[in-house]
């Protein structure tokens, strides 16, 4: 079963595929090094067979859903423990 993502959703590469395919009208195979493990991109389209068009820094690629996961907003928000430590450090100055 393939994962579901919303158009415009941020996703993260969790496993590098053996190759990537460009999302051009005439797709080309590229080495997996054009994307990095952990790199985030934005879903811009869905294709048959569990493939998603994801825009990364170096272009848009067709990525199988098994290689990506949703990049949750909580990853960007510091934990409450870090916020408390930061507040303590600022008040101690």
User: What is the name of the CATH topology?
Assistant: SH3 type barrels
Distance between the termini: 54 Å
Determine the mean pLDDT: 83
Looking at CATH, the homologous superfamily is: SH3 Domains
Number of strands: 7
Number of domains: 1
3D architecture notes:
With about 90 residues, this protein is mostly beta strands. The chain has a single domain (about 10-90), classed as Roll (SH3 type barrels). The protein has 1 helix and 7 strands, in the order βββββββα. A 7-stranded antiparallel β-sheet has the order 3-2-6-5-4-1-7, with no helix packed on it. β2 (about 20) and β3 form a beta hairpin. The longest helix is centred in the C-terminal third of the chain and has 12 residues, at about 80-90. The radius of gyration is 17 Å and the shape is globular.
How do the strands and helices of this protein lay out in sequence?
Blueprint: E1 10-13, E2 20-22, E3 29-30, E4 40-47, E5 51-56, E6 59-64, E7 68-70, H1 80-91
Antiparallel strand pairs: 1-4, 1-7, 2-3, 2-6, 4-5, 5-6
Question: What attributes does this structure have?
Answer:
about 90 residues; mainly beta; SH3 type barrels; seven-stranded antiparallel sheet
């Amino acid at each position: 079963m393939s994962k579901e993502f919303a158009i415009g959703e941020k996703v993260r590469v969790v496993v590098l595929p053996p190759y990537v395919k460009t999302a051009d009208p005439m797709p080309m195979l590229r080495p997996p090094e054009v994307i990095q493990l952990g790199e985030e991109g934005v879903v811009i389209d869905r294709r048959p067979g569990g493939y998603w068009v994801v825009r990364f820094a170096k272009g848009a690629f067709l990525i199988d859903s098994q290689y990506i996961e949703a990049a949750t907003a909580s990853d960007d928000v510091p934990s409450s423990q870090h916020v408390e430590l930061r507040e303590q450090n600022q008040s101690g100055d």
